[in-house]
Amino acid sequence: MKASRSVRIGGASGFWGDSATATPQLLAVPGLQYLVYDYLAETTMSIMSRARTRDPALGYATDFVHAAMAPHLSEILQRGIKVVANAGGLNPQACRDALLAVAERQGLRPKIAVVAGDDIMASMPAWQAQGLKDMYSGEAPPEGLMSANAYVGARASPGLSWGADIVITGRCVDSAVVVGPLVHEFGWSWSDWDRLASATLAGHVIECGAQATGGLFTDWELVRDWDRMGYPVIDCADDGSFILSKPEAPVA
Fold this sequence. Notes:
By secondary structure, the chain is of the alpha/beta class.
């Protein structure tokens, strides 16, 4: 176990189409070590599938490349801030290639790791022929499937230990974008269930973006400067405890 310390992580996206102000806002937080982005939901995967059908070079969260990374990539790399995002969707390799192209135009050479293996579409015909059924309803999969993915967890990504600046995944468990960095930073065992449970909770809190810092408030229209809501920041300790905060002066 490493010496007692904390790791500071900013949650910069809760869904595909989240505000582009999140990244610069969080970059203003002192001591930031990680930026994590969650883009995926079941509906999002179907949208990405249609996009990939039209263009094999698509099928990922284009916002991540052009809105979140491109304007800030130089600063992120210069400060040594690590990025973990499930922006790869159905085409993580294409997401990587697009980001590398952006980096090259800026004279940058980030190390990017890709986590693949969640896309099981190629296996579906054989499984359907063998009688694959829904475990709850007993129904067979529908004809004309748009996508089929098996959630992967934080354990699937050794990219940070290999020295990656940016880790791009496909359909991972939402909290994995936080659990992976914490296991990497603190050297936790994958059977240290208490710490892993705390990390999972921390991940689920901030992968929702600003929903964790007031975005789901029922009477939002009563809140002054609601449009300047701060995105979440967590400081995680090696005992699994964490503190949730947000930027002091969030920008719109």
